[in-house]
Amino acid sequence: MNKINTFQTTTRTIMGPGAIKNIVAEAKRLGGTKAMIITDPGLVKTGIVNELESLLNKGNIGFSRFDSVEADPSYETAITAAEQVKKDGADIIIGIGGGSAQDIAKVSSILVTNKGPISEYFGIDLVPNPGMKLILIPTTAGTGSEVTPIAILSDHKEKLKKGIVSMHLFPSTALLDPLLTVGLPPHVTAATGMDALIHAIEAFTSKNATDMTDMLAIQAIKLINKNIRTAYANGENLEAREGMLEGSMLAGMAFANAGVTAVHAFAYPIGAEFHIPHGVANSIMLVPVMEFNMLGNLEKFARLAEILGEKTQGLSLRDSALRAVETLRTLTIDLNVPNKLSSFGVKASDIPELAKGVMKVTRLLANNPRVLRVEDAEAIYKRVL
Ligand SMILES: NC(=O)c1ccc[n+]([C@@H]2O[C@H](COP(=O)([O-])OP(=O)(O)OC[C@H]3O[C@@H](n4cnc5c(N)ncnc54)[C@H](O)[C@@H]3O)[C@@H](O)[C@H]2O)c1
Ligand SMILES: [Fe+2]
């Protein structure tokens, strides 16, 4: 190691089937008497939010609810949610849902304790004060948002997704209950699971990877690779769901420190403009970006094939790396995730602007194992048009 590295993560995670039952004890431990539940309408329909509310009720913790978080939420939603937190006098926030609901919960918690405006906080370490007490409960496996200091919000005017990165975005506690993910529909299981796998792969191949992040990323890749097909094909399989939830958390811990790379940089412009779900956008970009990136660190991409369970004995580094790419291509086919941008309305004439959008995601391109130019970005988008 020839440079100084920082490692940070959520200080308290509680995981296992039924972990949601710990919500009252956790809220009380943190001094919470009135909670604001931040979630999305899809999750309300599943009955999971009612289950949470009935636990709070029994535990004598007051609550109100902000349940209008949309997919790939806008920064305006965070402002509205924070206003409701203040109006209702909540003293603790509980974010329950996928990355969208959790990110709005995270940003609301810092908007209440900082004067704003929110535009001052986009970027790295620009939030002055710690946020309100916050508990996060992921229900997709997933973004790993429960263990990252990151929140991603859409700016519809600029047609961009922007990140707030601050250690004040870590929750006080993450509660991970695989039972909550059992009802996740197959296509959402596939897309969110691919997002988690890509977090781990990108952390592992990032220029900022360390021994610590590799350890987390390798275990995440193994767990997700072992369980993703079963979780997709048989959502009721609790063991597979538990493996996915643990894998997505470990991947989150890895990328929160090593960073993600160009796959995410390509996913952001198409996600923001063509409303392609985050996991799907990442899955479409994974194979073409890996084929480009592998020359930047053949050794790591070759090791990836082994971690994915492929036999690489006797193969050159290049052939091993290609084996990893092919293994992942097969996975996206098995999971039936879309693999063409045109099926979301992207046209060849959109590519130059989208490629410029990729180049703006400098925060992630700085981690990429291979230097990327705008003409490379255009060529990569063209391959999956
Ligand atoms: N903060 C981070 O570190 C981080 C990392 C990666 C991605 N993100 C962001 O997270 C967002 C994506 O999050 P996501 O992929 O989890 O999707 P999501 O939160 O948008 O949820 C997707 C859908 O799944 C439904 N859903 C969630 N849990 C369910 C359950 N248990 N049963 C049935 N339906 C359920 C939701 O209602 C929603 O309709 C994007 O905005 C992305 O940019 C954040
Ligand atoms: Fe992601």
From TrEMBL:
Domain Alcohol dehydrogenase iron-type/glycerol dehydrogenase GldA: 11-178
Pfam family, one: Fe-ADH
Family of this protein: Belongs to the iron-containing alcohol dehydrogenase family.
PROSITE patterns linked: ADH_IRON_1
One example GO MF annotation: alcohol dehydrogenase (NAD+) activity
Record-linked CDD domains: Fe-ADH
Gene3D superfamilies: 3.40.50.1970, Dehydroquinate synthase-like - alpha domain
Protein name: Iron-containing alcohol dehydrogenase
Keyword NAD attached: yes
Cofactor: Fe cation
Occurrences of domain Fe-containing alcohol dehydrogenase-like C-terminal (ranges): 189-384
Keywords, sorted A to Z: NAD, Oxidoreductase
